[in-house]
Design a protein that fits this description.
About 35% of the residues are buried. Helices cover about 40% and strands about 20% of the residues. The two termini are about 20 Å apart. It folds into two domains: about 210 residues, Rossmann fold, CATH 3.40.50.1820; about 70 residues, no CATH class.
Length: about 280
């Protein structure tokens, strides 16, 4: 992504980096473009605001784009222990000068999709459009639920991250039995290689544990507020499957468009962003 960021800097001079003070923390965000509409983009796990640079390059004439670094990501300094709530995010967004009390569109990718859904549930009348790219949160993985939503499960999660040998052996056995798919197996092992990576996973999952969108409530709000929704998935994504989007769309078809690209989970890769931008 560094190369993409470098090229982006060459082409766009309207980028500004700033911080929002929040309690004892400092939330970093980037604004790009000068379009009339505001688009807030929420990045995925272990990524940051710069993840959206390739996509933003195609949108700056239409949107003023706001790219915050989530807690424990990017340049944000988070000192609120391991908890981040939707009320925190709403307060932070309202402190960003370009947004103030204006309406805006929100785009969430992967983990950011779960946060975007929760944000929409919190303030549906202010969100003009909901854009979800391979979003987490529509279906809650039972392992994630166990690890983050119960005290005993979180304690077990902590111990496993400290001593993951049994966990690695168990997931390998489950993969051989076809009880977990290859994509999830690779994704998990990719993010658990080192002590630092395991600590990061534990801290981020635990910090985001209150982001629990109620999908049925959200679909009712979409209908009531007539909010247009765009879903974008990768046909070969084995982490978050496009069939999830098909189920989510049921009952809100008139307001919800579904687009499936011929790629995997890395939908924000440069080869995909022009097509995604065309849908926005």
């Amino acid at each position: 992504m560094k190369g993409a960021a470098f090229n982006f800097h060459l082409h766009l001079v309207s980028m500004q980096s700033a911080f929002v003070p929040f309690k004892d923390s400092a939330i970093h965000y980037i604004t790009i473009g000068a379009g009339e509409k505001i688009l807030v983009c929420l990045h995925g796990f272990a990524e940051n605001a710069e993840s959206f640079f390739p996509l933003a390059e195609h949108l700056t004439n239409k949107y003023t784009i706001v790219l915050p670094d989530m807690p424990l990501h990017g340049k944000t300094t988070w000192k609120q222990d391991l908890l981040f709530t939707i009320d925190d995010l709403a307060e932070i967004i309202n402190k960003i000068p370009v947004i103030e009390n204006k309406n805006f569109a929100v785009l969430g990718y992967s983990m950011g999709g779960r946060i975007a859904l929760q944000l929409y549930q919190c303030m549906p009348k202010r969100i003009e459009k909901l854009i979800l790219i391979a979003p987490d949160g529509i279906i809650i993985n039972p392992w994630y639920g166990l690890a983050t939503q119960t005290k005993a499960g979180n304690a077990l999660f902590y111990r496993v991250m400290k001593k993951p040998g049994v966990f690695f052996a168990a997931t390998t056995a489950l993969k051989k039995l076809s009880l977990i798919n290859t994509g999830v197996y690779k994704y998990v092992h990719q993010h658990l290689k080192t002590n630092d990576m395991r600590s990061r996973l534990y801290n981020i999952w635990t910090t985001m544990r209150k982001m629990k969108p109620d999908i049925q409530t959200i679909k009712k709000l979409i209908i009531t507020c007539k909010t247009p929704v765009l879903l974008v998935y990768g046909r070969y994504d084995k982490v978050i499957r496009y069939t999830t989007g098909e189920k989510f769309r049921t009952g809100i078809e008139a307001l919800c468009a579904l687009h499936i690209l011929n790629c995997g989970h890395r939908l924000l890769h440069e080869k995909n962003v022009e097509e995604i931008a065309g849908k926005l």
